[in-house]
Amino acid sequence: MAAAGGGLGALGAGEAMAAAHALSLPAEAYGNDPNIEMIWAMKAYQHAEVYFNLISSVDPKFLKLTKVDDQIYAEFRKSFGDLRIDVLDPEELKSEPAKAKWRPFCMQFDGVVEDFNYGTLLRLDCTKDYTEENTIFVTRIQFFAIETARNREGYNNAVYSHAMETKSVAPERGISA
């Protein structure tokens, strides 16, 4: 993923500190302020970029996303044992019946996972990068549940393997006979 033009990286130190302070205030202080929504969107994008770079650089089966990955994974598979996670159907996350099923799952992590209900970007097809067509906005606990399952069940290996193949082929291209 390339950094978005004018994203968080474009902020100076003072602006970044102001953004961080703004994000620490309660939501009621803002209403629907579009500037705050943009900061949240940039923060979610930055999280997605860091995560994709991580699974491209480190074998996903060794990643630990939270201190309670085992609990998240066990509860996720108990509640969503038949959910297809390689290519997600947005209806399985956003429809009213899906929300009714996800809500109790998510709420059990209130006080267990920091910022469990913050908005986060999730790839629909785990073999592809974050793009407008391949991204959905979910809660952080949904992200942790699905990505922990993808890592443990081998679905994110495709991203890591592709990155390693690209890395090993790239130096050969620069050599001429």
Q: Which features characterize this protein?
A:
Polysaccharide biosynthesis domain-containing protein; two-stranded antiparallel ribbon; 53% helix; 177 residues; PBDC1_metazoa/fungi; Polysacc_synth_dom; globular; PBDC1-like_dom_sf; mainly alpha
Describe this structure in words.
By secondary structure, the protein is mainly alpha-helical. The protein has helices spanning 13-24, 34-57, 69-79, 91-94, 96-107, 140-152, 157-173; strands at 119-123, 135-139. The longest helix has 24 residues, at 34-57. It is globular. Strands 1-2 form a two-stranded antiparallel ribbon. Helix 2 crosses helix 7 (157-173) and helix 3 packs across helix 6 (140-152). One of its GO terms (cellular component) is cytoplasm. This is Polysaccharide biosynthesis domain-containing protein. InterPro entries: PBDC1-like_dom_sf, PBDC1_metazoa/fungi, Polysacc_synth_dom.
Q: How would you summarize what this structure contains?
A:
The protein is mainly alpha-helical and 177 residues long. It is 53% helix and 6% strand. It has 7 helices and 2 strands.
In the predicted model, the low-confidence regions spanning at least 5 consecutive residues are 1-8
CATH architecture: Orthogonal Bundle
Q: Biggest sheet: strands side by side, in what order?
A: 1-2
Global morphology: globular
CATH superfamily: yst0336 like domain
Domains, number: 1
Let me know the number of strands: 2
By helix and strand content, what is the structural category?
Answer: mainly alpha
| Relative helix content | 40-55%
Q: And the CATH topology?
A: yst0336 like fold
Could you tell me the strand content as a percent range?
Answer: 5-15%
Question: H/E series, N to C?
Answer: HHHHHEEHH
Number of helices: 7
How big is the Rg?
18 Å
Q: What is the CA–CA distance across the termini?
A: 32 Å
CATH class call: Mainly Alpha
Largest sheet: 2 strands, antiparallel
Pfam families: PBDC1
Domain Polysaccharide biosynthesis: 36-160
Protein name: Polysaccharide biosynthesis domain-containing protein
GO cellular component, one term: cytoplasm
